[in-house]
Amino acid sequence: MSKTAMIKTIIAATDGSEAAAKAVALAADLAQKYGAKIVLVHVVEDWGRNRVPDELQSYARLEHMEITERDVRQAAADEILRRAEDDAREHGAADVESLIEEGSPATRILAVAKARGADLIVLGSRGLGDLKGLLLGSVSHKVSHLAEVTCVTVR
């Protein structure tokens, strides 16, 4: 009788927080054990305006360059995923993919999990959210409540 891996695809949501880093490490450990693929997901709720923010106008003139709000958010998202990918590989994950999604974090994480046929979703218990997240419910709570697959929330 052949053994089939119970976990083939793991979604690891990351927002750059400490809890998310722990979630990526756990997901990578599991991926190594099961030979699974990790799909790292970072969700940007809003890309912002495609113009130079007022706060950066002077700097942009001095440096003769335009840095839009979207550019800043894209650079931050790229860096969060780069660090998460490095961490996942350091923890033994061999097959790692990174995605940036736009929209509601819980909704996008769930959509990616469904589209990729994920067997497991791993995410931090508290991210970098604000008071709104505390009042309306955390992303991890929403995902674990609505997911069709097993969810692991890391503290």
Can you walk through the features of this model?
This protein is of the alpha/beta class and 155 residues long. The chain has a single domain (9-46, 78-154), classed as 3-Layer(aba) Sandwich (Rossmann fold), CATH 3.40.50.620. It contains six helices and five strands. The chain has helices at 18-34, 57-63, 69-90, 105-115, 131-136, 139-146, and strands spanning 9-13, 37-44, 95-102, 120-124, 150-154. Strands 3-2-1-4-5 form a five-stranded parallel beta sheet, sandwiched between helices. α1 crosses α3 (69-90) and α4 packs parallel to α6 (139-146). It is elongated, with a radius of gyration of 17 Å. Residues 132-136 have low confidence and may be disordered.
In short:
The protein is an alpha/beta fold and 155 residues long. 46% of the residues lie in helices and 20% in strands. The chain has one domain (9-46, 78-154): Rossmann fold, CATH 3.40.50.
Could you tell me how far the N terminus lies from the C terminus, measured between alpha carbons in angstroms? 38 Å
Which segments are poorly predicted (pLDDT under 50) over 5 or more consecutive residues?
132-136
Helix run count: 6
Shape estimate: elongated
Query: Tell me about the biggest sheet?
Result: 5 strands, parallel
What is the fold named in CATH at topology level? Rossmann fold
CATH C-level name? Alpha Beta
Helix content: 40-55%
Q: What structural class do helix, strand and pairing data support?
A: alpha/beta
H/E element order: EHEHHEHEHHE
Averaged pLDDT, please? 86
Alpha carbon gyration radius: 17 Å
Provide the domain count: 1
